[in-house]
Amino acid sequence: QSALTQPASVSGSPGQSITISCTGASSDVGGYNHVSWYQQHPGKAPKLMIYDVSNRPSGVSTRFSGSKSGNTASLTISGLQAEDEADYYCSSYTSSSTLFGGGTKLTVL
Amino acid sequence: EVQLVQSGAEVKKPGESLKISCKGSGYTFTNYWIGWVRQMPGKGLEWMGIIYPGDSDTKYSPSFQGQVSMSADKSISTAYLQWSSLKASDTAMYYCARRSGGILVEWGQGTLVTVSS
């Protein structure tokens, strides 16, 4: 199975909102609600930010939200802060595997 | 608190064998799948496969089938990732993660494997 498709990079100014897309297929993103998003700062392990499309784990800022339409999931970060600058990966569970997106580098200008 | 603690960095030569570990605590180790994820230098996350410590059932990504071996020792709440003959292309950071309901909830800190002659 191919990796999920994410933009290589996005950027925004502090206080703005950005959205990162994650496009898959009906056999993964479109077929399951187990879409999750991970944040990874340089030299650190990934951290779960969104699970099951739109749920936030305890402790994750409400500025992070997720959604899905058809075969595309999205992560929106509102009120951008400098600390949000990181790599973001989407992931989709399937019946036989787990797929990751290629990752999106978020730059806070 | 759920924790996954991985073994330390390794430097190996091509052709050598290696086994890295991931010790879980703060939850019932045998009740959750452990996934392994590779991250090559400067690259993204790659799914390698998962193991269920309760019965050692394993599912490998086709890309890693035959290249690595996953195992678990439930008596010490530890999962392992093993290579029989390392290649330079195995140089990467390797993460373990606890899977719950299809989600990789908690991650280990990573083990850096460097393979160089």
Summarize the SSE layout with pairings.
The complex is a heterodimer of chains A (109) and B (117).
Chain A: E1 9-12, E2 18-23, E3 35-40, E4 47-50, E5 64-69, E6 72-77, E7 86-93, E8 98-100, E9 104-108
Parallel strand pairs in A: 1-9
Antiparallel strand pairs in A: 2-6, 3-4, 3-7, 5-6, 7-8, 7-9
Chain B: E1 3-6, E2 10-12, E3 18-25, E4 33-39, E5 45-52, E6 57-60, E7 69-73, E8 78-83, E9 92-100, E10 103-107, E11 111-115
Parallel strand pairs in B: 2-11
Antiparallel strand pairs in B: 1-3, 3-8, 4-5, 4-9, 5-6, 7-8, 9-10, 9-11
Descriptive labels:
heterodimer; A: 109 residues; mainly beta; B: 117 residues; 7-stranded mixed β-sheet; 4-stranded antiparallel β-sheet
Write a structural description.
Chain A is mainly beta and 109 residues long. Chain A has no helices and nine strands. In chain A, the strands form two sheets. In chain A, strands 1, 3, 4, 7, 8 and 9 form a six-stranded mixed beta sheet that branches. The N and C termini of chain A lie far apart (35 Å). The radius of gyration of chain B is 13 Å and the shape is globular. The N and C termini of chain B lie far apart (40 Å). In chain B, 0% of the residues lie in helices and 55% in strands. Chain B has no helices and eleven strands. Chain B has strands at residues 3-6, 10-12, 18-25, 33-39, 45-52, 57-60, 69-73, 78-83, 92-100, 103-107, 111-115.
